[in-house]
TrEMBL record:
Protein name: 3-dehydro-L-gulonate 2-dehydrogenase
MF term (GO), any: 3-dehydro-L-gulonate 2-dehydrogenase activity
Species for this entry: Chitinophaga agrisoli
Classification of source organism: Bacteria, Pseudomonadati, Bacteroidota, Chitinophagia, Chitinophagales
UniProt keyword annotation of Transcription present: no
EC number: 1.1.1.130
Length: 329
């Protein structure tokens, strides 16, 4: 791993996207999200994912010129069609629309069908929190996890994001329904490391810390065992019911992850009771760390810490993947 300036990373991404028929606006937005993900330590959905994104464009699975379109409106719930556009662009637009609805009405919901991978879901939680809203968003995905009691992958890891605005640093929960996201397992694999705790099953059905085995057979371990399995299923059902878009069943049938469904919800009120929120955080962090030198952090706190370090010292990148990206210029 080595460090490079954030601006260099962002401009490299943008230059490549402009060559792939992205407009200046879209190239800047998508490049900024890829670079910010790596800056914040989410390498799996930053630099590491960029070559895959480029290939999806070349394969015609991501349409650089597509714009999201309003399909229907039911009170404060809107359904949009992403038209297979860039997932980060569509997600940003959808969350902004939910923010607008919430700003005017206190609540807003945008269901998005026929879109693409949003990369780091937390991006849109931070977006909502920056606008002073509580943000909730979730997406479905290609099957990569068995249902509890099953042996074959039939559930997506269907990430869920919940963000709460806070003056001292937003609270942003960004979690897959599997113990480790596939991107995080790739990071361990690239470093030739085992997972710190079991993250899935090997081919014999035994729990394993081997990320390569799990990524190969797609038998990731659900968080909370049967609870995570159930939550992944229900999120997919809610997404399909609200958006009318493709479920994990349909996405998986095509063998490649595109045309997914997503939902963006914003809540806003003048008084978010900041003092009460601080009381909760203070109580949580008052616990003695279980390990000497350990630290108790709220969701999003480590992200902010990594962001500050990256802005000061440069963004950590995998040298091999960075060279791959430079060859795309």
């Amino acid at each position: 791993m080595k460090r490079i300036p954030f601006d260099q990373l962002q401009q490299t991404f943008k230059h490549i996207l402009l060559q792939l028929s992205f407009t200046e606006e879209k190239a800047a937005l998508c490049a900024g999200i890829f670079a910010a993900n790596s800056r914040d330590g989410v390498h799996s959905h930053g630099l590491n994912r960029f070559p895959v994104f480029v290939q999806y464009i070349k394969d015609g699975l991501v349409n650089p010129s597509a714009e999201p379109e309003l399909q229907s409106s039911n009170g404060l719930i809107e359904t949009w069609n992403g038209n297979l556009g860039a997932g980060m662009y569509n997600a940003t637009k959808a969350m902004q629309r939910a923010i607008t609805l919430a700003t005017d009405n206190g609540i807003g919901c945008v269901a998005l069908q026929n879109t693409n991978h949003w990369m780091r879901g937390g991006t849109y939680g931070w977006q909502a929190a920056d606008a002073g809203c509580i943000g909730i968003c979730f997406t479905n995905a290609i099957a990569g996890m068995p249902a509890w009691g099953g042996a074959e992958p039939v559930l997506g890891n269907n990430p869920l994001v919940i963000a709460v605005p806070r003056t001292k640093g937003h609270i942003v929960l960004d979690m897959a329904m599997s113990q480790f996201s596939y991107g995080k397992m790739q990071e361990y694999e690239l470093k030739h490391e085992q997972l710190p705790v079991p993250g899935g099953y090997d081919d014999a059905g035994n729990l394993t810390t081997n990320p390569s085995a799990i990524r190969a057979n797609k038998r990731a371990l659900p968080i909370g065992f049967w609870k995570g399995s159930s939550l992944a299923l229900v999120l997919d059902i809610v997404l399909t019911a609200l958006s009318g878009g493709r479920s994990t069943t349909k996405i998986t049938a095509d063998k490649k992850e595109y045309g997914v469904s997503q939902c963006f919800i914003c809540l806003r009120q003048p008084d978010m009771h900041d003092a009460l929120v601080e009381e909760i955080l203070a109580y949580t962090k008052s616990s003695q760390p279980a390990m000497p030198g350990g630290r108790i952090s709220y969701p999003g706190e480590n992200t902010l810490r990594t962001r500050v370090q990256s802005e000061k010292e440069g963004v950590l990148v995998n040298e091999e993947i960075w060279e791959q990206v430079l060859q795309l210029k």
